[in-house]
Amino acid sequence: MEAESKVIHFMGLGFSLNIIISVLATCIIVFLFCFIATRKLAVRPISKSQLAIEYLVDFIRNMISSSLHWKVGQQFHLLGFTLFLFVWVANMLGLVFILNIDGHSYWKSPTASPIVTLGLALMVILLTHYFGIKENGFKEYFMNSYIRPVAPLMPIKLLEEFTNTLTLALRLYGNIYAGEILLGLIASLANSYGLLTWVVGIPLQMVWQGFSIFIGSIQAFVFTTLTMVYLAHKIEAE
Length: 238
What we know:
This protein has seven helices and five strands; from the N terminus they run E-E-E-H-H-H-H-E-E-H-H-H. It is mostly helical. It has one domain (4-235). A hairpin with a 2-residue loop joins strand 4 and strand 5. Helix 2 (48-65) packs across helix 4. The longest helix is centred in the last third of the chain and has 41 residues, at 195-235.
């Protein structure tokens, strides 16, 4: 059975402690990586950390360019970089270790919580509306988003705003949550009958962790790519 998170209450609202801890840890890891990788930038010799962040910057640039003209999309470079790095690190946290104390969970991937993924998805959708209005003005934004190419499609496009938010959030949540559940089941199998099941459980755990790293990376890529696609729909004319 999955350990429950300890809930703390503030002003009548409940907050899961493991989510608070893991989100803070994700932010700290992302900050430290960027700080260390850019602390001593040089043309030659180039450190491995600088090479890593330069590769990541180019990777995000190519991702944005596939959805938006770079002249327009370059303003979202930092957004895409931060979003990809945050989601990727958040996806990986639950693979490192499990921390359960007295039946309470104090560590998990933040993106294994629907609240976190829904919050990220809602933020992304709201940003697409904001930048759409900022770039084109409200009238042109409204015409481009809901009236063109044919006005009768407006109800479907309004419904699409809701479904985009749900699918963006639940796709990420479902993949990461399922991965952590299976890791927990494999760990339980490994501990069930001592040495006999350890022989089977440990290799299986290693294989599934490798697969989870691949899935977590793909989901970070998909989340960031779809963010840029949704931005393109609001900013660029059909």
